[in-house]
C-alpha cells in the first residue's frame, strides 16, 4: 500500500514537473514571440532613435503640464513651462522645460518668454484657418455670399504709392495731387 502511494506521489511529481516545463516552454515561446514582434515593429519603423526620443520628450512634457494642472488655480495661472537654455543649465542638469512662476521672471527671461510665445503666430493662425476650412468642408457648409448689383455703373480707379501708402484713401489722393503739382517744373 505504501508502495502504491509512493508511486502515485512520484507520478504527481512527474506531472507537476512536466507541467512546469510545459509552462516554461509556453512562457519562453510567448516571450520569443513578443521579442520577434517588437523587433519586427522596430525594423518596420526603422528603429528610429530620434522618434523614440521625441516620444519620450513629448510624454515628459505632458506629465509636466499635468502637474501644473493639479496646482491651485492662482498658482496654475501664474505657472508655465519655460525652456531652459544651455547657458542657464547648471552642470548635472539636463536641458529642457522647467515650470516657472511667470511673475518672478527677470527682464531677460521675460523677453525670451514673450519671444517664444509670439514666434510662430502666423503659422498658428494659418493652421487654425486650415483646420476650420477642413471642418467646414467636411460637413459641406456653404459660406454666405453677398452679391451687390448696380445698374449703369462704371468704376475706374488708379492707385499710386504715396510715401509707402498704397491705399486709395481720400487723404492719399489729396497728397498725391499735391505732390504731383509741386513737382511739375514751370
Automatic annotation (TrEMBL):
<protein>
    <submittedName>
        <fullName>Pleiotropic drug resistance protein 3-like isoform X1</fullName>
    </submittedName>
</protein>
<feature type="domain" description="Pleiotropic ABC efflux transporter N-terminal">
    <location>
        <begin position="123"/>
        <end position="172"/>
    </location>
</feature>
<feature type="region of interest" description="Disordered">
    <location>
        <begin position="1"/>
        <end position="29"/>
    </location>
</feature>
<dbReference type="InterPro" id="IPR029481">
    <property type="entry name" value="ABC_trans_N"/>
</dbReference>
<feature type="compositionally biased region" description="Polar residues">
    <location>
        <begin position="17"/>
        <end position="26"/>
    </location>
</feature>
<dbReference type="Pfam" id="PF14510">
    <property type="entry name" value="ABC_trans_N"/>
</dbReference>
